[in-house]
Amino acid sequence: MTEPTQKMTWIPEATCGQARAGHLHTRHGVVQTPTFMPVGTVGTVKGMTMDAVRSTGAGIVLGNTYHLMLRPNADRVQKLGGLHKMMDWPGPILTDSGGFQVMSLGALRKLDEDGVTFRSHIDGSKHRLTPESSTDIQYKLDATITMAFDECPALPATPDVLRKSMEMSMRWAARSREAFVARDGYGQFGIVQGGTEKELREASVKALTDIGFEGYAIGGLAVGEGQELMFSTLDFTTPLLPQDKARYLMGVGTPDDLLGAVMRGVDMFDCVMPSRAGRTARAYTERGTINLRNARFAEDTRPITPHDDSPMAGKYTRAYFHHLFRANEILGPMLLTWHNLAYYQRLMRTIRQAIIAGNLTEVAQKLRQDWAQGDWTEDEWPMPQLAL
Amino acid sequence: MTEPTQKMTWIPEATCGQARAGHLHTRHGVVQTPTFMPVGTVGTVKGMTMDAVRSTGAGIVLGNTYHLMLRPNADRVQKLGGLHKMMDWPGPILTDSGGFQVMSLGALRKLDEDGVTFRSHIDGSKHRLTPESSTDIQYKLDATITMAFDECPALPATPDVLRKSMEMSMRWAARSREAFVARDGYGQFGIVQGGTEKELREASVKALTDIGFEGYAIGGLAVGEGQELMFSTLDFTTPLLPQDKARYLMGVGTPDDLLGAVMRGVDMFDCVMPSRAGRTARAYTERGTINLRNARFAEDTRPITPHDDSPMAGKYTRAYFHHLFRANEILGPMLLTWHNLAYYQRLMRTIRQAIIAGNLTEVAQKLRQDWAQGDWTEDEWPMPQLAL
């Protein structure tokens, strides 16, 4: 790795307990943290124009190396000027390393010390990922943030399995760092592994900080261990991480997961939940989730939430969403993905403002109370009478 | 029918040969004619937000009575404040009468003098449409322009079949007019039938103008007769129509169909072609159509056309469209429908400006030459070299 003249830096702005507000300075713009990154799997946030993504306040999006290396493939993305130009997103992009998604292929992949061989879920063709090739692919994709290539074992796993896997991931992290081409304002994050074992997480953090990255991700969580175990793992992991670098909890989560993780010192998140839910009629609101296919919304003249400050706010009734999903119209997933991503961004802004105001504990309590309360009743929030 | 204080009016602005430019003044805004109406079948232009539809310059959209009466149903649309409020389109909306679409059900429908009984294509449930109920449904949908309920026989048909059908349509037109609730700036169009028979078209126009409508549609074309027969039918039909009322050719057509029909005195069009093509990777350009799934576009760094003046112009390469369609991403149909509708609106603006400038013949010749020439070669229009 060569040294760039301008490094990617994370600048703290305020703390509240373990929670941190800050700014991540990158080649492609400044990201306010804590931040939620919408998932743009294959060069598109499903069902969204990037103008719509921008309108929600998103500051950084994620791309998936595994999907992009298969289709359209890394060389082609490079010929198209990289992901930013290809998908109309000049802002920062983080790409995962492909490691996690290749592991999910199960029987279709074969692991060795050097890397992973696997078959494409699209056409069965054979491919290989190593720390070097994953890093090279992310270079060709023009990722603002490159992730180190790692192995992520499913939980529960024995301590011995977890240790061996973590140790290999650390060797892979060193090789990933070696392969990384440093450029002004670009960065690479190492990924802490070690499951729910404190000792392994400590060893993993030590290995990664010895190498030195622009940021640190916490991997190996949100893989079936449950929120309690995830939080207790964060409780002993985040304090081990450098104070002056961004921290990214991969693949998390529900609004309540995000809140709890921010309160444990995490700055960055990604998750398919809000976009996937948007395609299946499930809407996130300040009062929990509702399923708009439900018959009770057929003539509900209220918008999904009274609190939406996104550009699409106030334009559509719940009844219209209900109709679109019942009629299998593309516009349903389009609008509801937009709504859900806008809700996630609004939530992150609320949390960020509370960190800066120093009242995150009170705000968190109120957020949780509201989620638990469930959808607004008609007494609380009457339906507008619409006339021709 | 009661008389409104402010009628829907069509004001001529310029003519060029038979072609007319004008303004249709309605309760929901002024529409520049000639105009193309995007089809919003079931309360949504498939794959488009109405902001995107607006951005193309569309001035009026179409809704389908048959689809809307089944789902979400007319009473529900009325409770939601009508189609305008439901779908975020405060501008003018024309609804068809359901007649044409019910005819397309074939064996699922049964015709009598009073109306049509049919079974829903969704759940097989039994429904009935008459001139009175169709008009009432369109009232509940809050259609700016209501269409008279008619029967549209498939072509070819014998003169006797065409006459009987036309005569019933004219009796239905009188009943539709009787049922129409006149309101300021709202209007109702009668539909000229009679197939390709001049004498029948004359009789139909006489019957409709005796009743008196705010506009006149030409029905019974674009049902398999071919462009030549369609144009020759227009040649003797449009001169029969009142000079001071808008003329609407239903369900037409290709860019070349629109051009030829405008030159024969038609002002309004609707067709699913540009939106349907957008969902199947077919792009309309000044140089004809191209299919973006084709392998030759995989690394084509040019936009679809150099002439796009829509808000999405210049954002995406042909290669990106190719990728989106190959990966079955929703964004492909979303963006290409947008592109195609923008092309259709741009074409109508070009034609309209030529009518006003008095050089439509020359402009038409140039348009047809370009369509015939086929896609731009790389010599004519080199591919930009994109770099990281």
UniProtKB/TrEMBL annotation, chains A, B:
UniProt GO molecular function: tRNA-guanosine(34) queuine transglycosylase activity
CC per GO annotation: cytosol
Binding site for substrate: D96, S97, G98, G99, F100, D150, Q193, G220
Pathway assigned to this chain's UniProt record: tRNA modification; tRNA-queuosine biosynthesis
Family of this protein: Belongs to the queuine tRNA-ribosyltransferase family.
Reactions catalysed, as given in the entry: 7-aminomethyl-7-carbaguanine + guanosine(34) in tRNA = 7-aminomethyl-7-carbaguanosine(34) in tRNA + guanine
Complex and partners: Homodimer. Within each dimer, one monomer is responsible for RNA recognition and catalysis, while the other monomer binds to the replacement base PreQ1.
Lineage: Bacteria, Pseudomonadati, Pseudomonadota, Alphaproteobacteria, Acetobacterales
EC number(s) on file: 2.4.2.29
InterPro entries the UniProt entry points to: ArchSynthase1/Queuine_TRR, TGT, TGT-like_sf, tRNA_ribo_trans-like
Protein name (database record): Queuine tRNA-ribosyltransferase
Alphabetized PANTHER family for the sequence: QUEUINE TRNA-RIBOSYLTRANSFERASE (PTHR46499:SF1)
Domain tRNA-guanine(15) transglycosylase-like: 18-371
Function: Catalyzes the base-exchange of a guanine (G) residue with the queuine precursor 7-aminomethyl-7-deazaguanine (PreQ1) at position 34 (anticodon wobble position) in tRNAs with GU(N) anticodons (tRNA-Asp, -Asn, -His and -Tyr). Catalysis occurs through a double-displacement mechanism. The nucleophile active site attacks the C1' of nucleotide 34 to detach the guanine base from the RNA, forming a covalent enzyme-RNA intermediate. The proton acceptor active site deprotonates the incoming PreQ1, allowing a nucleophilic attack on the C1' of the ribose to form the product.
Active site (catalytic residues): D96, D270
Organism this protein belongs to: Swingsia samuiensis
